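User: Can you recover a sequence for this backbone? Please restate the input before giving your answer.

Assistant: Of course. Working from this structure:
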């Protein structure tokens, strides 16, 4: 009699090959669509998406025949549970699954081909045109036109699709009674019943730092644009922060602090080589030859593509690519490092069983993508690789540098937190279609302290103007990443014996730090993520297997002190009125 465990092992070996093969086909169909948007490539991708759902449905049935209580090998039971954890593919209603794919395809198509009109004759794509206007224009009305034009052409055009999309997802995911709604399923990636309250607590711990940055930035922007543009509720106009979603404020750094912002003489290829050099300098992998042959690193001129940058793992242990409409800007150089960070993670776990080729949780994959930017952006590092001529003197250079880092790493926190607060409330049924936009602006106003420059009504659908909402891509992973990456940075700097303030630490060329990081990366999702966290933090002070805001607060400690002094000196109010949002109609 073959033991239950032996039979399960034999099944999983066969499954591993089958799942890798069908995922290769599905990923290739996705790549072909995203790098050449046509009706045919969309139909092909939808076809493979349904084939994959069908495969998952069948194999979940096959795996359910094993009696887990008779298998004491935790690894085998974890793998079997992953085979049976198939999300919406648990629904036998393939007509509804196809409808979900069709709606997603339609929303992604609207988003990726939308052209926002900034006047009656000029309509422009988001990347790079509208992004550049929002980044570089300093004219209030011109910025407002680009901000409104984009939302009218994207979110507003897909508003009618989203209610059915939500209902179909909820029907499919609740079919076998494992999940309460689609938000419950998204959160299950973190394998923790307290995840939702844990991230809320982290956000509240970080709010004072954000509010002090917000107060300083509001004062400097008020000086530039005039006090009449700033309501006495304390909110900042959403469209003058240098980013289409006000999620990253580095582009208005020139208004906030006079600082020689060096444009450097580099090429697109050199951007990728510089990023690769960072990873190899700490002992991690270089990009395989296939990466350079198959990636799409610049926007093609002869076809429509999805420009939103992304990293791809084709699942055959050899084919890893980046798709990015790369341009020569500092922000883009960071995105290059980010996307390549994902590839490094893929390479670290490529020889694990397919089911384990994932981040320990989605936030870990994003944290890995970002971690090197904490070293790469230090003035010392930029000087080392010739992007900065001189290192600014200690003190005021420190504050300028910390301010610039805070404009991306602190400014982002409420945004990274709120997208899924909105989405989870929609999936729960707490927010119905007739208040989608009001709920969105409740969160945007109350948590980010910004308000819309032009009147918003429930005819608008501003959540749809952010890629990840029509794309059905979870977002809390970025909030988790922004917390975790500072925990890892602190631990790796300790392991690397690099002393001094955390914000000046650069792990470049440090293979001890790299190998400690790799110990975590190569685990993939073999174990619950607390064990992966300990792989990095073990033996360092404050070691923990949980998320902690302390390292982020330590990193920005000197800046918070400076901001508090500066805001006090100018008698600047900290914070803004909650539940009062200018330009937003409440139902
Ligand atoms: C096949 C596939 O989809 N692969 C996944 C990777 C995987 O899951 O394996 C993937 O490539 N996702 C794309 C996404 C792209 C970007 C993004 O969307 N960023 C967020 C939030 C943010 C902002 C600042 C920041 O410093 C870091 C993140 C935004 O721009 O709002 C765009 C620029 C940066 C990262 C990404 O790389 O995370
Ligand atoms: Zn990422």
């Amino acid at each position: 009699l073959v033991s239950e465990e032996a039979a399960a092992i034999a099944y999983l070996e066969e499954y591993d090959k089958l799942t890798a093969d069908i995922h290769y086909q599905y990923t290739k169909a996705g790549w072909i669509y995203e790098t050449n948007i046509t009706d045919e490539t969309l139909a092909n991708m939808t076809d493979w998406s349904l084939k994959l759902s069908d495969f998952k449905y069948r194999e979940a049935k096959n795996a359910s025949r094993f009696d887990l209580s008779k298998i004491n090998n935790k690894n085998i039971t974890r793998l079997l549970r992953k085979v049976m954890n198939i999300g919406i593919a648990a629904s036998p209603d393939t007509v509804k699954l196809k409808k979900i794919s069709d709606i997603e395809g339609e929303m992604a198509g609207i988003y990726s081909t939308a052209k926002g009109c900034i006047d009656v004759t000029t309509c422009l794509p988001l990347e790079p045109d509208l992004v550049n206007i929002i980044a570089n224009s300093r004219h209030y009305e011109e910025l407002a036109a680009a901000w409104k034009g984009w939302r009218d052409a994207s979110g507003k055009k897909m508003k009618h699709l989203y209610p059915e999309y939500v209902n179909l997802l909820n029907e499919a995911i609740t079919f076998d009674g494992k999940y309460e709604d689609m938000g419950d399923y998204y959160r299950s990636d973190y394998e923790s019943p307290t995840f939702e309250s844990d991230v809320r607590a982290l956000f509240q711990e970080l709010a004072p730092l954000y509010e002090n940055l917000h107060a300083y930035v509001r004062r400097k922007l008020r000086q530039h644009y005039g006090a009449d543009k700033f309501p006495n509720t304390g909110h900042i106009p959403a469209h003058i922060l240098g980013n289409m979603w006000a999620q990253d404020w580095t582009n208005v750094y020139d208004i906030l602090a006079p600082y020689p912002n060096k444009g450097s003489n580099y090429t697109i290829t050199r951007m990728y080589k510089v990023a690769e050099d960072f990873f190899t300098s700490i002992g991690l992998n270089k990009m395989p030859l296939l990466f350079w042959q198959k990636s799409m690193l610049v926007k093609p001129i002869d076809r429509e593509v999805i420009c939103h940058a992304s990293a791809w793992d084709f699942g055959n242990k050899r084919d890893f690519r980046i798709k990015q409409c790369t341009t020569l800007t500092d922000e883009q150089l960071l995105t290059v490092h980010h996307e390549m960070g994902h590839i490094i993670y893929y390479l670290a776990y490529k020889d694990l069983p397919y089911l384990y080729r994932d981040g320990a949780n989605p936030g870990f994959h994003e944290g890995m993508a970002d971690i090197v930017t904490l070293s790469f952006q230090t003035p010392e590092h930029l000087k080392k690789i010739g992007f900065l001529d001189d290192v600014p003197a200690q003190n005021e250079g420190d504050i300028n540098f910390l301010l610039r880092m805070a404009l991306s790493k602190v400014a982002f926190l409420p945004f990274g937190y709120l997208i899924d607060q909105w989405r989870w409330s929609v999936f729960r049924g707490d927010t119905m279609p007739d208040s989608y936009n009001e709920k969105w602006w409740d969160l945007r106003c109350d948590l980010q302290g910004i308000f819309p420059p032009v009147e918003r009504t429930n005819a608008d659908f501003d959540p749809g103007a952010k890629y990840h909402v029509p794309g059905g891509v979870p977002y809390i992973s970025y909030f988790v990443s922004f917390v975790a990456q500072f925990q890892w940075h602190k631990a790796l700097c300790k392991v690397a014996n690099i002393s001094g303030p955390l914000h000046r630490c650069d792990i470049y060329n440090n293979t001890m730090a790299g190998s400690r990081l790799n110990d975590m990366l190569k685990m993939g999702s073999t174990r619950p993520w607390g064990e992966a966290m300990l792989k990095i933090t073990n033996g360092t002070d404050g070691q923990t297997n949980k998320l902690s805001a302390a390292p982020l607060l330590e990193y920005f400690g000197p800046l918070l002190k400076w901001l508090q002094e500066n805001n006090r000196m100018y008698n600047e109010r900290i914070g803004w009125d909650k539940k009062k949002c200018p330009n937003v109609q409440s139902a």
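That completes the design. The CA atoms of residues 53 and 61 lie 12 Å apart.
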